[in-house]
């Protein structure tokens, strides 16, 4: 058994070596325009919102850009507590700060604390690539030499990025990589220019997804502006119109393409432009759309209009739209805008800040976010509490919900105030003392409205109402803080 | 046959050597039951289903009646009985079946079966730690088997057969195995229980359950009028009032009494009598403790047991506190738990509508166990059907379960597993509504599903041209089945 395994490993590594075309550029000098990035991150534990998880270390390879900045993926610096840049030969180290970060586009820009550190580095400029191009993936050997693996670009498409569900342009290359220790955020280069950063690599299929230059470029332009604005959207959902029966029903008999609007975000860019559910968009930004929502891009051929809107445009741009309503062709302009994570009922991600919580006599009240749901492990989509998952999953149907956030009772830290309530958990709290809760910030005020010394909590599920003794809640606070070792009883920022 | 954590066991009971009973007499009153069952095919509901079988144990409960578990004879197409030392196979029929308490009565066509049998007498609830003997025909051999053990505990427990019912149940440590189901458990020559379920060996050892005689007696009494009316159910949820602030907020005295009504099912018997927020203080005069128990037969037991013992047409008297004012309400018990879609159902042909190659079926536990859905909304609505009162707008949830591929539906794959909201503007509450909308003459049939996706469009002309083609290609016998021939 053992010998079998061994020979397989040998065999595998030989294969990898041959097919990788990995030709180390045996330069004696240290690789230019790349730095190692050593990151220590400490995420908040959303199931115990008063505490942080144990620190974890990560290594990334950053691309040095002009202006002495270092580009890495946002994923690698999420919840970072300490970031250190290290020269390829390991001789110099320098602390760095995150200057700009976009978790949707998965990009972050780092600045060394001292400008001396990157002095002498020319910095990489950006270039786009096309299907068929040969691209180089850069890694560093332990001695600081550059390890280059070459692969061919197979695809350019608009697809979901890992952190949020936002869709952006991705380049995909077929390349066989011998992974070194810095396995995240590798620079991809063509003719000495930066094409993008690796964000996914699948060793079984040898496919590498990278964040391409157009997205990086957009991010860098935004990073120069304060406040950071990011990638704008239209605030609508659409569906294709390939089905000939659907086209006849919509009265699209004469034409060929177009997409059907299935939803507009209330007060979102499309709605403000007068677009409605049921309209069929024929052209966007002077480009005709096919029945799947693709346009003809000069660089990439037919790709999704998402790229056109969010990467080719900036916050506030007016994008002309041609659409059909009731058989009549009309035109309007969408003033595109980003939807910030805080604008979602259930935030798609929370990084770099402590989650809010409020401990009420042992009831732990929190605000729902997808980060909380992800605490239920890799299979969170099945393991997280059904009721809370359903809110996240169907929040596009809750657009008219007046709440800013969903306040919920995550668990009970038992005390003599909570006798009988020990089993309550994962329950949405609608109101306290008759005051509707639009976020956790409403809790302190609602608690001032106690009647006859009793707080009344209205829950969405059974038993729908729960009472707590206002005075006992006050008195039990210090005891809870001591016995459960809580640094503070509330965290409302 | 059933592999949840709790599994009903098709098993046979042998006679006890037991205390006072003459084993040879008990043996004469036992039968091995062989069931040729047909399970409906939910994937192709126009087909007759899968034929399978199982065996269990039955015993003579009164002259010319055999008692066994409901799960032994569910979906039966052909039943035979065999007795010890009698080569003949006797053909039997189900006379009464109670899926909610897993009991059934069989009758035998050839009454010569009963020659030499004696009805076994029913006893009471055995004491904890006393010895009992289990008789039956479990796996491991053909002859009668007897195992012995003690009564381990008596508790309110889920009955796995229906998946939604809980009743009094007695745990014993005698070996109970598949095939024992339906067999009698004896003590001092009297039947004290009917063996019915246990855990699979990798979950727990020496844990078997029997249906105690109060449940058996209730079943026998219920069918006296020739009908089984099921267990009556208050169809409410309650919450403890242990917390002092809760007691104060609800205006309760400091006497550890009463439970808070959390919800009242709109289709249940208490609707109109009890409201969420009421506190139930007593049930039929018995004070309810703050943890929801009552003292009954010198034991503390859940208040539901009081309703358990009632029959259809009986009433139940609840002492309640509403807005701090004590009141008394008398609730007529007219209905059992109304939401049978959440239970395993038997002897039922699946209903469906096939239109343009699209198969629409109402959501039920049977459907869920036949098809693994990927759409989380389906499971969510199934689980929250009662607490979220989904049933008020959707007494049936109509799911597009599968598509028989054809040129007219080749662009419709994205709708698979969608739940129908409306057809041509008409809200769809039941499968019948869907069938009616599809039967109307229209140029287009526009189906909207829950969520924010697009509408599905089918043209009448295309559907008409395709329907015979689809029927022939896929061997569909009938385009729809709406009548539930439920027992």
A few lines on this structure:
With 493 residues, chain A is of the alpha+beta class. Chain A contains 11 helices and 28 strands.
What does this structure look like?
The complex is a heterodimer of chains A (493) and B (487). With 493 residues, chain A is of the alpha+beta class. Chain A is built from 11 helices and 28 strands. The longest helix of chain A is centred in the N-terminal third of the chain and has 19 residues, at 2-20. The model of chain A is unreliable at 1-28 (pLDDT under 50). Chain A is flat, with a radius of gyration of 26 Å. In chain A, β8 and β9 form a beta hairpin. Chain B is mainly β. Chain B has 3 domains: 6-224, Thrombin, subunit H, CATH 2.40.10.120; 236-332, PDZ domain (Pdz3 Domain, Roll); 341-481, N-terminal domain of MutM-like DNA repair proteins (Alpha-Beta Barrel), CATH 3.20.190. Chain B is flat. Mean pLDDT of chain B is 91; it is low at 1-6 and 10-20. At the A-B interface, α4, β14, α9, β26 and β27 of A face β14, α3, β15, α6 and β28 of B.
List the helices and strands and how they pair.
The complex is a heterodimer of chains A (493) and B (487).
Chain A: H1 2-20, E1 34-41, E2 56-65, E3 69-72, H2 74-77, E4 80-86, E5 93-102, E6 107-112, E7 134-140, E8 146-160, E9 167-174, E10 187-190, E11 193-202, E12 207-212, H3 213-223, E13 236-239, H4 244-250, E14 259-264, H5 269-272, E15 280-284, E16 287-288, E17 294-297, E18 301-304, H6 305-310, E19 318-325, E20 328-335, E21 357-360, E22 363-367, H7 370-374, H8 380-383, H9 386-393, E23 407-412, E24 427-432, E25 435-436, H10 443-447, E26 454-459, E27 465-469, H11 470-483, E28 490-491
Antiparallel strand pairs in A: 1-2, 1-4, 2-3, 3-6, 4-5, 5-6, 7-8, 7-10, 8-9, 9-12, 10-11, 11-12, 13-14, 14-15, 15-16, 15-19, 17-18, 19-20, 21-22, 21-28, 22-23, 23-24, 24-25, 24-26, 26-27
Chain B: E1 6-8, H1 23-28, E2 30-39, E3 50-62, E4 65-68, E5 76-83, E6 86-98, E7 103-108, E8 131-136, E9 145-159, E10 165-172, E11 184-187, E12 190-199, E13 208-212, H2 213-222, E14 236-239, H3 244-250, E15 259-264, E16 279-283, E17 286-287, E18 293-296, E19 299-302, H4 304-308, E20 315-322, E21 325-332, E22 352-355, E23 358-362, H5 365-370, H6 376-383, E24 398-403, E25 420-423, E26 426-427, H7 431-439, E27 444-449, E28 456-459, H8 460-474, E29 480-481
Antiparallel strand pairs in B: 1-12, 2-3, 2-5, 3-4, 4-7, 5-6, 6-7, 8-9, 8-11, 9-10, 10-13, 11-12, 12-13, 14-15, 15-16, 16-17, 16-20, 18-19, 20-21, 22-23, 22-29, 23-24, 25-26, 25-27, 27-28
